[in-house]
Amino acid sequence: MAANDVKSAVTSQAYLEGSQVKQTKSLISELCRLFYNLGWVSGTGGSITAKVHDDSVPKSEQLIIMSPSGVQKERMVEEDMYVLSSTGDILFSPSPKPYPHKPPKCSDCAPLFMKAYDKRNAGAVIHSHGMESCLVTMMDPLAKEFRITHMEMIKGIQGHGYYDELVVPIIENTAQERELTESLAAAIEAYPKTTAVLVRNHGIYVWGDSWISAKTQSECYHYLFEAAIKLHQLGLDWSTPSHGPKPLLGGQSQTTNPSHRCVVLDIEGTTTPISFVTDVLFPYARDNVQKHLEETYDTDATQDDIKLLRSQVEDDLKNGVANAVTIPSDEAGKQEVIAALIANVEGMIKSDRKITSLKQLQGHIWQTGFEKNELKGVVFDDVPVSLQKWHSSGIKVYIYSSGSRLAQRLLFGYSNHGDLRTYLSGFFDTTVGNKKERKSYVEICESVGVHKPSDVLFVTDVFQEAVAAKAAGLEVIISVRPGNGQLPENHGFKTVKSFSEI
Questions:
Q1: Is residue 130 a contact partner of residue 39, using CB atoms and an 8 Å limit?
Q2: Residues 243-267 pLDDT 10s
Q3: Has 152 been annotated as catalytic?
Q4: Which of 75, 193, 320, 463 is most buried, judged by most C-beta within 10 A?
Q5: Phi, psi of 489, deg, nearest 5
Q6: Whether the model pTM is above 0.90
Q7: Which string of DSSP letters, residue by residue, matches 171-201?
Q8: Which of 79, 152, 182, 189 is catalytic?
Q9: Which segment of 24-33, 191-200, 448-457 scores lowest on mean pLDDT?
Q10: Measured between alpha carbons, how far is 93 from 82 in angstroms, rounded to an integer?
């Protein structure tokens, strides 16, 4: 159906009065009653919006249902809802009700909701005035972000796992809701991974692909905010993996000092012998790729891996990359597809390519090996002691490696010195950028929340990475370990042979 035909169909009177629109109106009424009982939309505050899901209509063209403004959210019914076009034009307004009800008015949040729809292709957005979402922005009046890690409910936030650091931007409140529109849009742009924006002394906006996703994430965010508030009351630091006592600096809690130090570590040749990667991990992935693909071929994870590899190989073929082999379509049969995948993966491993598609598949293969105790991560003996020392001092430690974040977590989680993930605040891989490019380190500094790049120390064994990090303003130390490559003469960087020297 052509775009104009779709637009005409969904804006017709018959469609506006149809079952999909009615069901979405009813859903929002139900959710408002639920959220009222949770304290998220009391006092007529807060709001909800959702797109009218219809498989026959592209998501970008689907109608939008919004709750009205200034009404008792727990008493709303279907007839109280506004219907908007995909571009935000009002197609249906509710009829006025007698005194003491106010004249109907579409949600004051409408322009902010539209930013989430436009910039994130959201399926639903929730604006909550839950007290915990308000209080959590007050614990540090200078903070521009809320950060928390190592909490089970982080897994309920899209794109995050237990060991990840959840970062939620905080914008300043204004007298009128609509005045928040541009600052919310800027936060969405600045934090491409976030699914929420906190408004100081006000509340939170949360979006998801569907109403279920938005609701689930909203519940998880509120839980995490409440946990942080309670940890704060106990004098514990919610932003560190151990959630231990907040270190005191000059008689004040660390949270009152917005400047803090971070250490970012490379893996190969820095925390871990290069030989472990080249002689153990790479061969294991190469030798087990066929078995892994055959046993997991129909799983969502492997199908996602195959999709990434197809895209990479298509680019390789266009660019004349050696050893690239066409991957046939699924119609050719499972074995034909696997054979082509194996040929490409072997060529990528042989060329030691630092590409996301290969690293993601390797991570999944290694996961099986670690979980079956066929693999054990190796770190130098000085690494655990230093990680524990930095952690105890309140210094956050991150990993930045060309290996996938999953592979990084596996190596430190199943190491020869036990589970070291307790001492790590987060993981970065090539999705943040190439390790030899300055902008990657700029992105990391923005992600870890330092006020100036020199607050971050980067340790690596690769000269080109050191140059890129220094260009971004980070402090840099080069790790000199057995088996590492030769450094250029007069390279100008401080070197260490052990973390104990840092």
A1: yes
A2: 888 754 433 333 333 334 899 999 9
A3: yes
A4: 463
A5: -70, 145
A6: no
A7: E---SSGGGGHHHHHHHHHH-TT-SEEEETT
A8: 152
A9: 448-457
A10: 5
